[in-house]
């Protein structure tokens, strides 16, 4: 009597190809989800606005610090930094008064060093390329005799974007404290 030959693999599924197919489908799904998430993040207007806000704040803090730092021993470099940090009317005022200011600082022989304590963007018009910042800083002034004095102040700055870069176009002292009308 002859018996039929049974194959050992008949009726069984192969687990390795099925597992590979399942992992490929899961990886493809994850890639599609991650790609869609990346695309949304890359084209998010809020993210672009936040990036411009951060750029304006960093530039504003640096420019305010630059305009409050000056060493009488290296005036050219300090005043060049002032000019490169500014634009518009503020820039014109600095360049017009440079010679007179140079003489005053050389005579006084002072060294002022500013350090930013904090800053915030108070207004941002990204489309128009204008921003306003408030910067708190500590300015240390060293007199010719070596005496040092610290002064904390709050500055309000206006920034204008020129050639893709934020520059200070106005700078003034922020009011401190409140006033009572009664």
Can you tell me about this structure?
The protein is an alpha+beta fold. 45% of the residues lie in helices and 30% in strands. It contains five helices and five strands. The chain has helices at 15-42, 45-67, 75-84, 88-96, 98-108, and strands at residues 70-71, 111-125, 130-142, 148-162, 165-173. It has a five-stranded antiparallel beta sheet. A hairpin with a 5-residue loop joins strand 3 (130-142) and strand 4 (148-162). It is elongated. The N and C termini lie far apart (120 Å). The model has no long low-confidence stretch (mean pLDDT 90).
Task: Provide a short characterization of the protein structure.
With 182 residues, this protein is an alpha+beta fold.
Which descriptors would you attach to this protein?
5 strands; alpha+beta; 182 residues; 5 helices; elongated
Number of helices: 5
Question: What is the H/E order?
Answer: HHEHHHEEEE
The portion of residues assigned to helices is: 40-55%
Through-space gap between termini: 120 Å
What characterizes the major β-sheet?
5 strands, antiparallel
Tell the overall outline: elongated
Strand content: 25-35%
Please state the structural category. alpha+beta
Report the average pLDDT across residues.
90
Provide the spatial order of strands within the biggest beta sheet. Answer: 1-2-3-4-5
* Whole-angstrom Rg: 32 Å
- The low-confidence parts are none
The strand count comes to: 5
């Amino acid at each position: 009597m002859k018996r039929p030959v049974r194959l050992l693999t008949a009726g069984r599924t192969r687990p390795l190809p099925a597992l590979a197919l399942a992992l490929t489908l899961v990886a493809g799904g994850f890639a599609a989800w991650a790609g869609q998430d990346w695309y949304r993040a890359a084209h998010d207007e809020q993210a672009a606005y936040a990036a411009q806000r951060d750029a304006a704040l960093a530039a504003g803090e640096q420019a305010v610090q630059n305009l409050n730092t000056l060493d009488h021993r290296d005036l050219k470099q300090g005043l060049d930094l002032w000019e490169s940090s500014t634009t518009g009317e503020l820039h014109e005022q600095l360049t017009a008064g440079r010679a007179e200011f140079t003489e005053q600082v050389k005579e006084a022989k002072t060294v002022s060093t500013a350090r930013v304590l904090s800053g915030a963007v108070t207004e941002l018009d990204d489309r128009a390329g204008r921003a306003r910042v408030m910067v708190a800083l500590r300015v240390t002034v060293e007199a010719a005799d070596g005496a040092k004095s610290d002064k904390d102040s709050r500055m309000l700055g206006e920034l204008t974007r020129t050639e893709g870069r934020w520059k200070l176009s106005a700078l003034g002292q922020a009011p401190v404290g409140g006033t009572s009308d009664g």
